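Quiz preparation item.
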């Protein structure tokens, strides 16, 4: 038999002389020769009889069995000759690679030689699925079987599908999964360091760019996924206000200067994915003027200022040159009658205002803010700053920038059969006579 006090060292084993050990199949034990201090390995099936100078220091224990598709890590592995056999010293002790590791795959059951030990458990090999990869890092310099040299700290990817065979010089950092880019989406990437991407384009560290190709995209080892960018849907009633953070050429081939602002409408594209150097300021809704509405635009762009009185497309400035899209600061224009347009960056607009409609018994007080030439019934009249006058109904009054619109006055006496109206002088101008007006003749009394 074999007796040992719990917790006692190996030397306190009691081994009777001529003790026989029956080693079953797939078992092994370590036998110490006390004269030479050499430990030998005995593998079953056999019956082993210890000599007087020998004692069993380990076992019997089962052989290490690595099933298919698995691996095990051995610490302090035995050294091997060029033909793969185990290297022994002159005394018969197996040589060890102390502090090293060896990864053993599927093979015949094997024993652990003295000094060897398992590192962890027997693990299954990593199966890399399609559209995924393993990020690997070299822990030391080595050359693989294909002659490729790797240096410590170098990263690379093992692309699936496939089974990854581990190496002692390589550690698995993490699993990289592909990102699916759907319609109206793009993937924003950043470079970890200077490298050449899969499209043979040079990238510098920190550079960002967009990938617009549909389908699964597996980031390269030097690419960082920043986020997925969704497209903005553009319609006839909605545009996108953009700002350039750097000088670049946009997706439509137009050169944009840093700080430039512009609009993207459905005339350019049904959808727009903001580029790396494009900052989305806001979405702009279309402004619609009816036949009886007008609005005042402050700081209009040059192109709109030149065509304010024309009935052409108000948004042809969008594709104009740089100068046509610059705002004319300090100026104003009036837009009126059946117009659909987007406000350009830098422009401001008052609320949409309905025109003033004067009835037969109404008059509107006006005052000139600056000199201009007015046309009344085909006659030209020069208006001076501060001049005040009345216009009489029935008519529609469309405003002018040079004129300040006053209040509507009503007659204090009227004879409709004669089309004769008398207005209260106190509501008009500080004079002592009464204003009378005949509707058909336009005569003031």
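Solution:
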């Amino acid at each position: 038999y074999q007796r040992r006090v719990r917790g006692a060292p190996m030397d306190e084993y009691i081994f009777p002389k001529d003790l026989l050990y029956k080693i079953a199949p797939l078992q092994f034990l370590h036998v110490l020769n006390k004269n030479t201090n050499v430990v030998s390995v005995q593998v079953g099936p056999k019956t082993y009889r210890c000599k007087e100078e020998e004692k069993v220091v380990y076992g019997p224990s089962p052989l290490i069995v690595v099933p298919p598709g698995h691996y095990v890590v051995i610490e302090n592995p035995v050294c091997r000759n060029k033909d793969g056999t185990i290297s022994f010293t002159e005394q018969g002790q197996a040589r060890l690679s102390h502090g090293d590791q060896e990864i053993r795959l599927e093979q015949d059951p094997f024993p652990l030689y003295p000094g060897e030990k398992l590192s962890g458990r027997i693990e299954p090999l990593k199966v890399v699925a399609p559209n995924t990869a393993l990020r690997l890092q070299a822990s030391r310099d080595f050359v693989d079987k294909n002659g490729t040299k790797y240096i410590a700290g170098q990263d690379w990817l093992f692309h699936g599908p496939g089974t990854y065979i581990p190496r002692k010089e390589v550690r698995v950092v993490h699993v990289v999964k592909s990102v699916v880019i759907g319609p109206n989406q793009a993937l924003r990437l950043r470079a970890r360091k200077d490298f050449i991407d899969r499209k043979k384009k040079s990238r510098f560290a920190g550079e960002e760019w967009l990938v617009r190709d549909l389908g699964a995209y597996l980031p390269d080892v030097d690419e960082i996924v920043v986020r997925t960018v969704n497209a903005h849907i553009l319609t006839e009633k909605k545009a996108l206000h953009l700002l350039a953070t750097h000088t670049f050429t946009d997706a439509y081939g137009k050169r944009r200067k840093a700080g430039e602002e512009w609009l993207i409408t459905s005339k350019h594209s049904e959808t727009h994915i903001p580029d790396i150097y494009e900052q989305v300021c806001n979405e702009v809704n279309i402004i619609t003027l009816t036949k009886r509405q007008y609005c005042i635009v402050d700081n209009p762009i040059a192109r709109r200022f030149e065509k304010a009185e024309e009935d052409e497309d108000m948004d042809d400035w969008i594709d104009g040159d740089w100068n046509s899209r610059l705002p004319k600061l300090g100026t104003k224009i009036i837009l009126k009658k059946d117009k659909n347009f987007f406000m350009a960056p830098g422009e401001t607009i008052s609320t949409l205002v309905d025109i003033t409609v004067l009835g037969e018994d109404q008059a509107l007080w006006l005052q000139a803010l600056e000199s201009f030439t007015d046309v009344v019934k085909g006659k030209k009249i020069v208006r001076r700053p501060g001049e005040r006058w009345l216009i009489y109904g029935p008519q529609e009054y469309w405003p002018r920038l040079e004129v300040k619109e006053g209040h509507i006055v009503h007659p204090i006496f009227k004879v409709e059969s004669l089309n004769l109206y008398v207005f209260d002088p106190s509501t008009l101008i500080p004079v002592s006579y009464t204003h009378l007006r005949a509707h058909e003749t336009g005569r003031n009394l």
